[in-house]
Amino acid sequence: MQFTSDARSFYERIGGEAPLRLLVLRFYHHMHALPETQGIRAMHQANLASAQDKLFMFLSGWMGGPSLYIEKFGHPRLRMRHMPFSIGESERDQWMRCMSHALEDSFDDKTLRDELYEALSGVADFMRNKS
Ligand code: HEM
């Protein structure tokens, strides 16, 4: 559970499905474009469409909206699904760098951006599987 300044879910606060789709689109756009995130870009398939779709579905439920990922794929077991990739501090920080830019592009409300950044940092850190 996240401790935030607002009782509403993140999903509601960002404005639902369309803004979430845009956030995820921008996230992968930055991953593809930023020189400093080419390390994690290279871990992904050439075509980012499926990763994009899955992150959108996952975040929908994680933010308190429809549990799209679970409905389609079952329990996310996210950490286990990331085991094939070598994720340390650098990879975690690259992921958060893309997210930070995408949040900046997407939402004017700084409190909302900061709270989402904080909460996602926890998930990204949990994904580390090397020191
Ligand atoms: C910490 C650094 C992270 C790295 C380096 C990373 C990397 C990856 C890679 C390479 C894939 C496979 C994508 C493909 O099919 O091409 C993937 C899948 C995925 N990632 Fe991450 N990821 C990270 C963190 C996260 C976080 C924090 C979340 C959620 C907030 C997340 C959510 C997902 C989801 C939902 C999938 C799809 C899983 C599946 O069903 O196969 N990832 N990730």
Alpha carbon gyration radius? 14 Å
- What is the count of DSSP helices, taking H or I runs of 4+ residues? 8
Provide the CATH top-level class: Mainly Alpha
The proportion of residues forming helix, as a percent range, comes to: 55-70%
Describe the sheet with the most strands: none
What's the shape?
A: globular
Please give the domain count: 1
Specify the structural class: mainly alpha
So, the CATH homologous superfamily? Globins
Measured by DSSP, the beta-strand proportion falls in under 5%
Q: Would you identify the regions where 5 or more consecutive residues have pLDDT less than 50?
A: none
* Cofactors and ligands: protoporphyrin IX containing FE
Q: What is the number of E strands?
A: 0
CATH topology-level fold name: Globin-like
Q: In sequence order, what are the helices and strands, one letter per element? A: HHHHHHHH
Average pLDDT metric: 96
Terminal-residue CA separation: 26 Å
In CATH, the architecture is Orthogonal Bundle
